[in-house]
């Protein structure tokens, strides 16, 4: 009964419809990076409407049947508190996707490069700290949320208990779970259709699927919101509403909004662009030991655009080709590169995937790659033990040579990126993002290597707006590769190079399912 009253009671249906239209407008305008007046206006309108809708919904559920102006009056009286509440709810909802608005907001977040770099280099302790704070804040909201809401709507006589809040959250999670299951079923249907239907029919199926998924998401979110507010109000008995005839125009507006969002997802560019194929750590399908000459010689036969490999500084200030900061896994020796000289490291045998090989110096690896005419993507690893000026020495010694070879350098440490560009400005230098949470323009680079799990089309578009290619690491399954291709990534860094090369030889028209899948992921 609460769901029916929350949807059909006077004023609420129109309010939900307007909220969906504003939400759709934000998705449409927020697709491309940058702040615009119309985008800010839409955000402010959605915040104001959300406050009114929740207030009007609460008063309706407790049987007050207020006029619309009365709810607006109550919202205006508590406008400061509402602003704080909505900001808090937005922050809590950001990790949950915010209905696809999270990436549209985060890609516009400018922060100092030093702060971004600190978070990236200390991502584990920072991540744990943020997770603890998030859990504490979410717990406080769970326990005190109903009392805060009562202050915003004093007519509520008995606010909900924490048990009622837990039940409401479980119901909301269940609704989203049902939506997710149905959406994945629709994705599977599109995968089946792509393989069997003509190109036009497959694209039409994708268009209809996107519309259904969007409308289903809207319904699930509205019902979850009604359940939450009903629990904030103490789950009162709700009388049967007297619905007003809203007319088909409301349904028509929702379908039009959903159609616009679906069309944007289907037709947005870039999609299925030319792909740069990059072998991760110089390995293809587990043949050879990562970052060794044997693996390099094998993978170069597949002619990747780049072979990605890693460098660590040694105790005698040389460079060894190695990814791990400890040799325990590959060489069964509990030591770091900084504890051994290059000569000692070259004598070590490393084992992986049933193969064995020797560690190799950077100069030897580079000469071998040049003989094979194989461009490299060099990742410079950093530790607190690195010598002062190591990166600048690298740039002076190898910058011009790497540029002649058509090679590039990237790093997780933005200090490396900045120093290389200052010392060797003609060298192509990129920044590796451990996760995607700020405007790429905050950390300028020649290209970006985006972490795959949290990348979105908005981050790829932001990189393109800055004139930088967007590469993604490390999709290994065919499904992940196709999804990144459908997002518009310019390159993929993968452990399965030959698989990626087969994937990008497919016709894009046979992979509309990936566009639908990306849309599902964009909602959460």
TrEMBL record:
Sorted alphabetically, which keywords does the UniProt record give?
Answer: Membrane, Transmembrane, Transmembrane helix
- What terms describe the molecular function in GO for this protein? phosphoric diester hydrolase activity
Keyword Transmembrane helix set for record: yes
Does the UniProt entry include the keyword Membrane? yes
Against Pfam families, the record matches this protein to: GDPD
Q: Which residues form the GP-PDE domain?
A: 275-504
Name of the featured protein = Glycerophosphodiester phosphodiesterase
What is the species listed in this Swiss-Prot or TrEMBL entry?
Levilactobacillus suantsaiihabitans
């Amino acid at each position: 009964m609460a769901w029916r009253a929350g949807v059909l009671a006077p004023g609420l249906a129109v309010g939900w419809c307007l909220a969906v239209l504003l939400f759709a407008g934000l998705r449409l305008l927020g697709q491309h990076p940058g702040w615009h007046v119309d985008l800010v206006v839409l955000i402010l309108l959605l915040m104001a409407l959300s406050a009114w809708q929740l207030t009007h919904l609460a008063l309706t559920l407790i049987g007050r049947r207020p006029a619309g102006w009365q709810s607006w009056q109550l919202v205006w009286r508590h406008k400061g508190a509402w602003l704080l509440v909505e900001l808090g709810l937005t922050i809590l909802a950001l990790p949950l996707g915010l209905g696809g608005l999270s990436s549209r907001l985060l890609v516009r977040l400018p922060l100092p490069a030093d702060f971004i770099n600190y978070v990236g280099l200390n991502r584990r302790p920072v991540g744990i700290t943020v997770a603890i704070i998030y859990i504490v804040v979410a717990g406080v909201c769970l326990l005190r949320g109903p009392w805060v809401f009562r202050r915003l709507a004093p007519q509520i006589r008995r606010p909900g208990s924490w048990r009622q809040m837990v039940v409401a959250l479980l119901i909301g999670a269940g609704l989203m779970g049902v939506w997710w299951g149905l959406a994945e079923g629709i994705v599977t249907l599109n995968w089946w259709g792509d393989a069997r239907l003509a190109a036009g029919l497959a694209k039409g199926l994708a268009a209809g699927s996107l519309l259904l998924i969007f409308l289903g998401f809207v319904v699930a979110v509205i019902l979850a919101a009604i359940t939450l507010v009903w629990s904030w109000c103490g789950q009162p008995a709700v009388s049967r509403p007297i619905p007003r005839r809203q007319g088909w125009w409301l349904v028509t507006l929702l379908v039009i909004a959903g159609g616009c969002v679906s069309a944007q997802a289907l037709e947005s560019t870039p999609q299925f662009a030319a792909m740069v194929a990059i072998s991760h750590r110089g390995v293809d399908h587990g043949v050879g030991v990562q970052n060794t000459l044997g693996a390099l010689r094998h993978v170069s036969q597949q002619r990747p655009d780049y072979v990605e490999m890693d460098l660590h500084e040694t105790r005698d200030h040389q460079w060894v080709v190695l990814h791990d900061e400890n040799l325990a896994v590959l060489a069964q020796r509990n030591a770091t590169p900084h504890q051994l000289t290059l000569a000692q490291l070259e004598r070590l045998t490393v084992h992986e995937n049933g193969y064995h090989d020797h560690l190799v110096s950077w100069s030897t690896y580079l000469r071998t790659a040049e003989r094979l005419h194989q461009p490299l993507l060099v990742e410079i690893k950093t530790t607190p033990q690195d010598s002062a000026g190591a990166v600048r020495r690298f740039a002076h010694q190898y910058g011009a040579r790497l540029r002649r070879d058509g090679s590039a350098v990237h790093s997780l440490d933005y200090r490396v990126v900045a120093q290389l560009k200052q010392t060797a400005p003609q060298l192509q230098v990129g920044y590796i993002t451990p996760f995607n949470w700020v405007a790429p323009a905050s950390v300028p680079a020649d290209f970006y290597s985006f972490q795959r799990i949290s990348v979105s089309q908005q981050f790829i578009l932001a990189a393109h707006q800055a004139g930088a290619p967007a590469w993604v690491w490390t999709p290994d399954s065919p499904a992940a590769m196709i999804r990144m291709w459908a997002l518009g990534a310019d390159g993929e860094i993968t452990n399965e190079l030959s698989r990626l090369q087969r994937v990008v030889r497919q016709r894009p028209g046979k992979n509309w399912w990936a566009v639908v899948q990306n849309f599902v992921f964009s909602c959460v």
